[in-house]
Each structure stands twice: as C-alpha cells, then as structure tokens.
Design a protein that fits this description.
single chain, 256 residues, alpha/beta, Uracil-DNA Glycosylase, subunit E, 2 domains, five-stranded mixed beta sheet, 47% helix
Amino acid sequence: MRLEALRQRHAKCFWPEAGDPIKRITRRLARGLLEVLGHRFAYRFIAMAAKELHTADEFFPERKTLPAFRRAAADCQACDLWRRGTQTVFGEGLAGARVLLIGEQPGNEEDLSGKPFVGPAGRLLDEALAEAGIERDQTYVTNVVKHFKWEPRGKRRIHKKPVTAEIAACRPWLEAEISLVKPKVIVCLGATAAQALLGPKFRVTKDRGRPLESTLAPFVLATVHPSSILRAPDDETRHREKRLFIEDLREAASLL
C-alpha cells in the first residue's frame, strides 16, 4: 500500500475527531508495529504515516547545542499541539547533568511560564529530590512532549494525555537532549515517559525503582509522575506514595 494511502486510511486514529471504531483498529495497528519494529523505530514510522511525514528533526538546528535546540524547538510544528499550547516548553537544567528526569508533557503553569516542572508537581518533585539527596539545579528536566495538550473544562485547561503520533513527532527533541546531556541515570516519571523509552509493555506499577541498562544511558529507572501523588484520594495515601517516590529517587542517587 502506498504511504499516502496508508496515511489517509489511518491518520484519524491519532486525532481527536476520529471515531471510536477507527481508534480501536489503529491502536491495534500501532501495537503491532511496536512489537515488530521496536518502540524507537515504530514511533518514528507512525508519526510519518499519520501526519504528512512530519517529525521534529525537520526543525533541527545546524549547531548541535542545547541552546540551539531550545531556540529551534520554539518553532516546532511537527504535530498539531503547537496550535493550542502557548509555547514550546523545552528541557532545562545542567548541561552534562548526571541525572536526567523525563515527564509526560508540560502542565498549565509550565505552558504559561515556558519552563518544565514549575507547577504543583514540580514543587513536589523538588521536595522529593532534596530528600533523596539530589540537587535540582544539578539535574536536567524535560518532557516527552514539549507542548501542553489540554481540553477546556469551564474556565480551566485540563491535561489530556498525548497520543502515540504526538509522542513520535516530538521524540527527536528528546533524543537530542539525551544525546547532548549524556546523563548517567535517566529517571522516567510516569507511564508515558517510561513506555516511550522502555517500550509499550513496560509497567511502572510492576518495575518501578528498578535500574535497567539501556543504550540511552548507563541506567534507566522508572517511577510515578509526581502529579499522580497529588491526585491521591486522601492524606494517608498521599504520604505513602510520596515516601515510595522518594525511595525510587534514592535508588537513582545511589547509581551516581
């Protein structure tokens, strides 16, 4: 089947206007590609087929430095999320950091400020890092997706999970950040980040806090996203989940 025909046939599954039957069919297609090609190559292929062959590497700068990539990312239109986000929220932190932390996407406060992890989840992350013996200013923090995906709810903008094609379109930015920072430990915060790096079968609930060897860094470790702790139903659960989160970060610190 020609690539354009494939795109026209399956592109709707990655976008909000798609009907539920189409979404279900193409999720199965995406899972099949992930299993056959492996997550890194499948994400790139899905993005190409689903959205006019666009991925973020089309916007790459000639000069391969973090500041140059940050400037280039400001103009990224590899997926449609740029239409709703206020601005690109690129990674931030120490070039050459030994710890690189990766979340899912910027939230409302990050979208408005242009900086990652400055909202409530970011403040909780700062507290947990300090208790784990990791200085925030000695890390590099970023997200799998660089624009805020949201849906309106009254006057509020509510987070909406990015789909596979949006993750795939944005992936080259993340790969560039990892390549330039060269961390010793990557910490994936939440399922979206963990599955983007470790494959769709990875389960944070099963393997959190366990260091894994990777081609991306000497160690990759996954834990929950701090926003999930803030959503805990009561104080007791919240305190327990925060304690477990800190333990995972201490494991990351022990690898340095």
